[in-house]
Amino acid sequence: MSNIPAFKSREVVGILKHEGFIELRQVGSHLHLYHPIKKLRATVPMHAKDLKRKTLASIFHQANISLKDRHKRKR
Length: 75
Known about the structure:
Layout (H helix, E strand, L loop, with lengths): L8 H10 L3 E6 L2 E6 L4 E6 L7 H10 L4 H8 L1
Antiparallel strand pairs: 1-2, 2-3
């Protein structure tokens, strides 16, 4: 998992919105997104630093998005 590039929270939110997710609500520093067709939810912590790789993997798992595809596009 060390080959995964670093992402900022805003970049991840942009990816999720591009995939069809919409903002549901924000509670504290966590933004909750929802995909109306696939009925999926994803939670993104909105911090200024890069997201940890395990957190990033968890977000993409929640959203049912392949991390390998995102890794290739980020390069």
